[in-house]
Amino acid sequence: MSEMTARAFWESRAEAHPDRVALIADGMTLTYGELDSSVNRVANALRAEGVRGGTVVAALLPSSAELLRLQLALAKLGAVTVPLIAGSTVQEATYVIGHSGAELMITDEEGAAVASSAPRMLVGPLVGDDDRPPPESGIGPFSPHAIMYTSGSTGRPKGVVQPSSSLAAAGRALAQTLLLEATDNVLCALPLFHTAATHMAFGSAVGCGGRLTLLTRFSRETFWPVARESRATASYLFPAQMAILMTNPPSSDDADNPIKVCFSHVRNQEFCDRFGVDVCPGWAMTETCGMGTLTRPGRPAPGIGRPYPEDGEVSVRDEHWCEVADGVQGEIWFRHRSVMLGYHRDEENTTKSLREGWVGSGDLGRIDEAGALHYTGRLKHMIKRSGENIAGEEVEFTLMAHPTVEEAVVFAVPDAIRTEEVFAVVCVRRPVDPAELVSWCRGNLSRWKAPRYIELRVNTLPRLANGKVDRAAVIAEARIDDAWQEPGARKPLVSG
User: Fold this and answer.
1) pTM of the prediction?
2) For the chain, N or C: smaller number of CB within 10 Å?
3) Which residues contact 491 (CB under 8 A, 6 or more apart)?
4) Domain of 391?
5) Spatial contact of 141 and 163, defined as CB atoms under 8 Å apart
6) Looking at the structure, do residues 248 and 110 belong to the same domain, yes or no?
């Protein structure tokens, strides 16, 4: 199947079915035609501000219909979207704005103070009168579409450059793999700065010609009522979100809901049984633009599925980049024409992660005799808390900037609700209240990156023969029961 730009993917559906409902969000129900007209008004307002093909535009807005319209409008103009994570600190926003080379920032009054480093800023909803499609930009399927900043194994987030073709490739493939049809309604409880929301949830809704119901914020109190009211039939849920929904008191009508299929990282069988939902586990990355592997509906089996799209390829390789035999663990690599173009302004990491069209994941896995992929761990020093990646080094660097901290080792510990939590072993020069260190982290990082557990040490940390900190020894010695955690926080819910 030929590649399509993000604009062509969206407009082909809007032109084919203008009267079909496309979006339910913010108390509104919009058809494809209505949404497309509103997108054109935003696009033409942006064009009047000088936005053209290739213009790098950053956006710091809450997940909403307004943000979705903006993203589609920028796609129509062929601009490169840089979505900032809602809740970013000044330091985080300043880095992304500067590193991406954003020429324009679009935000609201709350975000304006955080994004003060932007060279140019538009604050408030963009309102235009011209609902005609803007002129074609000349952007092709493999032109940059977005720079998605994702925490990597280094201290600074990496900017993943996604091609314009990736939205259509991921959306159509997911719709086909999950057997979605025009009558389906995908409930998105993920923020629109996330590839899982843009390419997987929204993309699959457009891919099948169905609708998207957008939750501006996930909560256990609203998820099922919105699902029932909107008659949602599919959703994407992080494992942490499924765990949170399981904390609702059991009810006799739990399975009386319209959702028939969810895609996630793992299959929570208790969740499936309680809510009558078929959870299809899979694997994908920002770098693979929402494509990877997925288990087909109605086929529960070990592992995390087989490649999608149909022409996608998955491979497990050793440290010499040689394919390993079935059943042998190695690094997961994925190949498709519409994976990332590279890391923005980062030739070194691009060279390491892109080889002959293959994207290296830093994740460990094996392929069984039936061809299904099994996830077994991570090569990267990464923490996945409630579905969001946290680079351990970024938290370490922040802690070590505190005047009392000599060294820090930050790592993941399992948690039944949030999948993983942040544990910090901190070697200090003099006594310090751990609460002060948490406050320090929250002043320099997003709140959700701050350590949940802190263990203080006054002596040097164990070291290897080369003088480096022996991380394995530090992690082996750490004990949650002996660690500090915030007063009043819930008791540890450590999974087995």
Assistant:
1) 0.86
2) C
3) none
4) 384-485
5) yes
6) yes
